[in-house]
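pinging the channel bc i need a second pair of eyes. not urgent but kinda urgent?? the chain im working w is below, pasted from the shared doc
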Amino acid sequence: MSSSSKKVCVVGSGVAGLVSARELRREGHDVTVMEQSGGVGGQWLYDPRTDATDPLGVAGAQSSIYASLRLNMPRETTAFSDFPFFPSNDGTGDARRYPVHAEFLRYIRDLCDAFGLMDAVRLNTTVLHVGPLAPRAADDGGVKRWTVRWSSRHGDSEGEVVTAEEVFDAVVVAVGQNSQPRLPTINGMDKWSRRQLHSHSYRAPDSFQDQVVVVVGCHMSGTDIALELCTVAREVHISVKSMDDGAVFPGMRQAVSRHHNLHLHLQIDSLCEDGQVVFADESSIIADAVIYCTGYDYSFPFLDTGGLVTVDENRISPLFEHTFPPALAPSLSFVGVPKSVVVPRFYEAQARWVAQVLSGRRSLPPVADMLRSAEEYNRARETAGVAKRLTHDIFYLEYCDAFGETHCGFPRLEDWKNELLWSSVKRLRNATESFRDDYRDSDLVLEGLRSQGRRTRG
């Protein structure tokens, strides 16, 4: 592929979309970012509204952030490789190592200002359809360009809506991971008359005052919400698939032992019309509300690839290195799909790779080789017993460094940051409650690591 500038559409202006825009521009591409919200930041653009008309879906707000959310990784590692996440100079922000969500949104906006990205962003613009344009006669038969149909609202919510189409040489899908709530299938769920909502619609605990609440799921959001609720609710019952240590962090067990109104159960067996919740361990309660902290499914309703890219049991397939669909590469790519990686650095490395491939500085393997690689990866994960829905959950931090080095010469995470990151991961698993409450027990140790890193860099 010869070196050239491409006209590229980036769908989404969250962390993945904005860093994609920056890296594409660095490679000389003409970039347009389309964002359906009124501001940049994606999930980090907190919206106090909830999906009141559809609390189990996505009828209203796009963000899933709740009011008390704080970063669970230290700011030193939650930053781009060349743009440190420092506290604000004027002292108005949250200077803590694990700041609230608004501080990270400030950082994202600072990135936009520092690199002049806002002039590439079209706010209040919803992408309706992305599909391949018929190849020109001179093309070799592969997909070269894409038609993007979008609608844009001018002014406030009552403003005029304009719909238009535009042709791009390439499209980067960077819509994030937390837009389509995943719900369990529970007997009686459709008939239960009391309050049900997905964590996507949770913002604050106030409306659950003195209630009996069941929280389904015990990962990060479930743990956070359950611990917050037990400060106002009469009872909080956490429903988990298994009582094994892999499913319930030791810190949660400690929290249950310390709070008289916090209880742990096996998963819900059924919901009854009278408000009764029956658990698999045969215990039951009368509950006022059920909150499903059960994660999200990847969703790209606007994307038409003619079946060349599919989402099945939360696996986007086929994807070479979680980024390029082989038959449509490099003109179609995904940035921000992998989970359990170092964010935002991994997405920065993905974006840099995409930008360099589009400009011709890097080349991709033949389509057959990329397909084979994707199939071998999926087969290896299945052989290891990893569920299909976890295809894009990496679980292996070394992969992040190897990915960047291999594909685009991206710098490795410094040793002191690596130690800091692992220390935080261990704290999350072993001391969930104290970590959430004040994040302070390991500050002296981590400050020592940071000082060591400064000396190393000096």
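so The chain has ten helices and 20 strands. and Residues 213 and 265 are 13 Å apart (CA to CA). — does that match what u expected or am i reading it wrong
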